[in-house]
Amino acid sequence: MKELNFKSIAQMHEYFGEAEPENPLFSILHSINSDAETQVCENTPEPVKICNQFYSISLKNIIEGEILYGRTKYDCDKGSMLFMAPDQSMIMKGIVISKESWHIAFQKDYLNGYDLFNKIKKYNFFNYNANEALHLSPKEEKIMMTVFENIHLEYHNNQDEFSKEIIISHLETLLKYADRFYKRQFLNRQSINKALYTRFKEVLNDYFASNKFESEGIPTVEWLSTQLGVSHRYMSDTIKAETGKTAVDQINLYLIEEAKNLLLNPNASISETAYKLGFEYPQYFSRLFKKKTGMSPKAYIESSLLN
């Protein structure tokens, strides 16, 4: 597999035959081919793995080909946005995109001294995988293209003391819209959300049935997301959209429900129950149980005997 690791924005520009960026820490590319309906981004039979050492935001229509993450394929014939954080990677194969596309790249240092430096860490979609792209409605795509155009105009304007502040302001607007549209996407994909949550519970059930809680400990969110073929942030956001609780919350609730059953076994002790559920120290189990149920494991056993 061919691998492309772009350490700088200038290196990426050079590879794709673009002019050197006006700012080494920030660039925006607007690709349009008026003589053809589509243009080929990477039309090779072998997949290409791309990794950037900077933030990347793309707006494009995928007409043909595949973007792969593990065994999951992403393709979409509507406006789609891909967000990549530094050191993330995606695999592309035979991609054909629409005649018009936008691409923004910026180094983390470009945000130094601005509120967005810290705010950007809260946008989970930068840690989603390629198959978890943002799919835009025509109205949403028009809004996003307007923001891209505003950034493009300012970037190619005569640079002055206000330029960077204006660009970052537009960039922050773009990210706020992306956050809104992602939340809309979660709400509109309820059947997909339900399917993912069902698979999530099935993985936990299989893990418990195989006594892996006791032998390997409580599964992490990262491990569970790998079993489902999605990023851990996307999994948590999807489960939260479906249930109102994060993946960590759901794991804890699962542990408590199993604990209630185990604690009522005649020969079970609180310590044995804790170890069976993957807790290294029984006191951690007791603390979580009381937090979620309002009573200690001992009090729960006693109240159950009375009823």
TrEMBL record:
Residues 202-303 form the HTH araC/xylS-type domain. InterPro entries: Homeodomain-like_sf (IPR009057), HTH_AraC (IPR018060), Tscrpt_reg_AraC-type_HTH (IPR020449). SUPFAM superfamilies: Homeodomain-like. SMART domains: HTH_ARAC (SM00342). Coiled coil: none annotated. The keyword DNA-binding applies. Transmembrane segments: none annotated. Gene3D superfamilies: Homeodomain-like. It comes from the Bacteria. Keywords: DNA-binding, Transcription, Transcription regulation. This is AraC family transcriptional regulator.
